[in-house]
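Consider this:
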Amino acid sequence: MSAGGTNIIFYDIPSTLPQNAWSPNTWKTRYALNYMGLAYKTVWVEHHQVEALSKGLGAAPTGTRPNGSPLYTLPLIHDLSTGAVVADSSKIALYLDATYPNAGASGRRLIPPGSRALHLAFEAAAHPLLAPLYQYGLPATVAHLRPASTAYFERTRAEKWGVALADMAPRGAADAVEWQRVKDGFGTLDAWIQEGGVYLMGETPCYADLWIAGFVQWIKLVLPERWEDMKLWHGGRWATLLASLEPYATV
């Protein structure tokens, strides 16, 4: 929890990992709240409880299931100061900027003025680049979930991806090919960032950097052996990114 004058409840998904937090999507919002210096309380919600919680709070769906029914996911925040309930990390970032434009000692913004279109375009372009990561991250995540979430997670991910998690991770020769695809995806992100240094827009982090860091955290936490390889990629960029954001990684 960060210091500040707001009263935000942040809903996250627990695990058996030492610090609990693991989800790439909720990490984006955790980084955002910490970076802006906003006070918040984490409430841990098992996967199978997310839909009922979201409906109870009046949150909008964040997508659609394969069967056409509404999908409810975390992150989700409930701002007790305004009554707002916001789901989806990018929408949360926009909400925080609009509601708390002078947050933190330096009035930090997640999406600097004039860069909203850039951020939306970045997320739309970057997500497909990281799609190959899911075949590694999802099966590895199961081992770190609490028993209450395991069966639900396995069932819903199999429905979405069309393959059981036990059969998803590449094996044999396919592993080298698919892991290279993961590296290539991050390589494209590296090329986009290079001119600016550590961060996409220059000397200070923006939401796009936190978006990337959420996925890097996921790899580090649930795929530690893969992280040993990844942290050397692209001149050590991804290890440097996490190290630079460590002050905002409080759980």
